[in-house]
Here is the input.
Amino acid sequence: MPAHLALPTEHPGVAVVTIDRPERANSLDPPTLRALAEAWRRVAEDDAIRCAVLTGSGERVFCSGMDLATTIPASQRLARGERIDPDDFEGLRAISTATLAGFDLGKPLVCAINGHARAVGLDMMLASELRFAAPHATFALEEVARGLYPTGHATVLLPRQIGWVHAQELLLTARPIDATRAAEIGLINRVVQADEVLATALDSADAIAANAPLAVHATRDGVRALLHLSLEEAYARQEELGRPLRRTEDAREGARAFLEKRSPVWKGR
Here is the structure.
């Protein structure tokens, strides 16, 4: 499979999704798009999965973006109304889900950036909550250098996640930045040794998965929902989001576990 999902037993509640085309710089061709879309649907639908980790295969590239040699000809034939291979059609139809541009995972996503993240690779990363990168990783949005508009998350989420001038530099120059610079501007959490990237991401995913699932879900969704609201509206909305949680069985269990100095046992209700 050009992309696959694993459920490591030593990391309960965590799914690891790997883009596995190192010979093609982990670029996204139609089969990879279909496999990624299938993986994300599994994560979203499986209540046992509380957090996901996304990484690339190999030691060089996280994801270099679309495989232009396969996706562009197929999309051009489709635009002209010509018949295309059914598998290619399904891959193109899955793009928004595969890249998380038109699909809300509904659960936290942690990126283990093992190498270069370019174009759609960086764009897909913007859908995540936490990001850890190897020292040799670079980041670039190269669409304008190819005469394209950077659709997906880039023009929507990037200026909300990092400073305006830093977002515009990435979007308009198409020049790559290194991992150190990415950490400086808040694009990633931090740089870690290459052989520790996945372990670091899994450690954070474990911490997320160990927390109360209803509270994690509400907090993740709340942060996204409050971004566009005024301060007054945001304070009112966060109370609306928080009030139901205070009446849950998990909230009572959290208080009891704290007083009894033990780990809580979450029920998700």
Observations:
- The CA atoms of residues 51 and 65 lie 24 Å apart.
